[in-house]
Amino acid sequence: GAGVSQTPSNKVTEKGKYVELRCDPISGHTALYWYRQSLGQGPEFLIYFQGTGAADDSGLPNDRFFAVRPEGSVSTLKIQRTERGDSAVYLCASSLGPGTGVEGYTFGSGTRLTVV
Amino acid sequence: KQEVTQIPAALSVPEGENLVLNCSFTDSAIYNLQWFRQDPGKGLTSLLLIQSSQREQTSGRLNASLDKSSGRSTLYIAASQPGDSATYLCAVRQGGSEKLVFGKGTKLTVNP
Fold it and tell me: Fewer Cβ atoms within 10 Å of its own Cβ: the N or the C terminal residue of chain B?
């Protein structure tokens, strides 16, 4: 596609529920990143995929958070037993990947998650 | 651990002014530095990317400089316009890592 697409754009869920957030990267981008942005803060890194594998998941806050990218394109961020502190904007970005000489990221518009 | 600080947190200027946004980082072993713009309720738009070996990059009315040894970058906006109103974020990428470390941003308001 022309850009990074994230769905849904907004999600309201009750505390304790399970949610899935979807990211559709730019076609041909092998690298995919998830970030979380709380109100008034800069984005914080969660996880990075190179192809199908999670090359760096050091930013996932705890085992309630999990992400997959089974075919090396679309990625899903999964949050179990949501807590009010999980409320934030979840941003996805993609890039051509390391060593390509084109280093910049393209970000999606984000999913605003509200846990009530 | 890399920390990125942006000063000021907010800035309000009249239209037409030239302005400078500041970004500092604690670990100078960076791979590159990127400036982004974020409009309310939107994602991030990349403005300029400076590799660690470069001193500056220019795009239109924007100029970004990098002094890696002192851990500083500036974003210069010439002849500001109301459409420049947004939050500007600075992010650094460490050597050997694919993740970006962001500052909290500078919220810019350009008044007509």
Answer: N
Distance of CA B82 to CAs A3, B6, B22, B61, Å?
26, 21, 20, 14
Size of interface A-B (CB pairs under 8 A): 63
By the 8 A CB rule, do B32 and A103 touch?
yes
Closest chain A residue by Cα to residue B99 = A45
User: Residue A1 pLDDT > 60, yes or no?
Assistant: no
| Alpha-carbon radius of gyration of chain A | 13
pLDDT band per the 50, 70, 90 thresholds, residue A101: low
Residue contact B104–A40, C-beta within 8 A: yes
Comparing alpha-carbon positions, the chain B residue that sits nearest to A33 is B99
What is the spatial distance between Cα B108 and Cα B19, in angstroms, rounded to a whole number?
A: 10
Q: Which helix (H) or strand (E) holds A79?
A: strand A75-79
Query: Per-residue confidence at B40, pLDDT binned at 50, 70, 90?
Result: confident
List the single residue in A56, A91, A108 with the smallest CB-CB distance to B98.
A56
B101 touching A (Cβ < 8 Å): yes
